[in-house]
Amino acid sequence: GIDLVCSPDLTSLLVISKQPQLSKGSRVATLYTTPLLGERRFDMQIFSALYRSIFSRLRDIREGIRSSTDSWRLALRPLDTKFQGLFKLLCNYNVAQPNESVVDCAAAIRLELLRCILSGRSSVSGDASNAL
Length: 132
Fold this sequence. Notes:
The chain is α+β, with helices and mostly antiparallel strands.
């Protein structure tokens, strides 16, 4: 890894790097002079503030996405359980055929809910509307 320390007027940079070829834990420090950065230090302050602001917002976005993803998973877990129960109920009423596929389960539930919404009852069996 590399550590970097700047002088307050940005005319000197101290670079400390860990050298893997040297003994364990040893570091090499190098001092650089940079008169150009000192001349442009006010421009660098603006860049520094913008950099900090952008990466702060990106960090907040990353945390927000992680939090919303966790919330979404927690919200859908009970829904999957309820859909499995509804699919089992539809199978007990002989409306849907039991399969191990999750896609078939979702498709069967979607089809029967659509039929119930459009006609008020299932087209497979009159008793299926009691299940819904």
